[in-house]
Specification:
By secondary structure, the chain is α+β, with helices and mostly antiparallel strands. The protein is built from eight helices and eight strands; from the N terminus they run E-E-H-H-E-H-H-E-H-H-E-E-E-E-H-H. Helices cover about 45% and strands about 15% of the residues. The strands form three sheets. Strands 2-1-3 form a three-stranded mixed sheet. Strands 4-6-8 form a three-stranded antiparallel sheet.
Length: about 270
């Protein structure tokens, strides 16, 4: 729950806590219909909906910290973007080879499972794209050679349906059996070849051709090959795009913003 003076906001009344949060930020208050306002709204809802008790000061603190984080991360993202753009020319031949293989790839699960490798695609931001290309792994983590098998079907379902990446064997990442028709601005479409033994394929033939046809692998599991296929549209405001990325990371059902709020509450109490 979220406490603001004599007012208490819970899951049922969370949206009514947004305006008080805006007022609490004063000159730093985000304007309506902006990504910063959406970020603040996510934090208010996280605080109000959790069983723990938070103060409005906790929401304000986390919001300010996240905006400061975006300011710090934007130059890193910009550098990664330039790195990926410079790499695209070198990747052109491999990307064309893999795209041709993707277009010719069977869509029946039985046929896919009988193959040694599968071609997959994924749109992602500049920093993760750079890490995936550097480490040649599903999620851009340093390669863990112990990870030779696929995630469980249940873990893959949670990633595909809920965006939950954490598993007992480390985080997983979702790719697609088809090239995504649209992906985020300021991002890159990667195309890769992966061992079938390392991926969790969709559960049905229909799921293999519908939507994003999710294919999951451990973020630290090695890919066979990977290249940049294309670049997404540029952004007009790189800093606001960075705030958007932070908001996206918080806007999943596991509510990771609650952990940030609990840390802010701990620091407030200890002061």
């Amino acid at each position: 729950m979220l406490i603001d003076g004599s007012n208490t906001y819970t899951n049922a009344t969370a949206v009514h806590g947004v305006e008080p949060a805006v007022k609490a930020l004063g000159a730093e208050a985000p304007k309506a219909a902006t990504i910063r306002r959406r970020l603040l709204t996510v934090l208010v809802i996280n605080a109000a909906s959790d069983a723990s008790q938070f103060d409005m000061a906790d929401v304000v603190r986390v919001y300010r910290d996240l905006i400061a984080q975006a300011v710090q991360e934007e130059p890193v993202t910009s550098a990664a973007r330039h790195w990926c753009q410079a790499r695209m020319g070198n990747d052109a031949a491999l990307a064309a080879e893999l795209e041709l293989a993707l277009n010719r790839q069977p869509t029946k699960l039985a046929e896919l499972r009988s193959r040694q490798n599968v071609v997959i695609a994924r749109g992602c931001g500049p920093r993760q794209a750079k890490e995936i290309l550097t480490h040649v792994t599903f999620g851009g983590l340093a390669a863990n050679l112990v990870l030779q098998g696929p995630p469980t079907a249940d873990d893959a379902d949670r990633q595909t349906g809920l965006g939950e990446k954490d598993t007992a064997n480390g985080p997983i990442e979702e790719w697609s059996l088809g090239q995504q028709k649209g992906f985020s601005s300021d991002g890159f479409m990667l195309i890769a070849e992966a061992a079938v033994a390392k991926v969790t394929l969709p559960r049905s033939d229909a799921a293999a051709v519908e939507g994003e046809a999710g294919v999951c692998g451990y973020a630290a599991a090695s890919l066979e090959r990977v290249a940049i296929l294309s670049e997404g549209p540029p952004v007009t405001d790189p800093l606001e795009r960075e705030v958007q990325r932070i908001n996206d990371r918080l806007s999943v059902r596991s509510n990771p913003g609650v952990a940030l709020l609990k840390e802010a509450r701990r620091q407030r109490i200890e002061q």
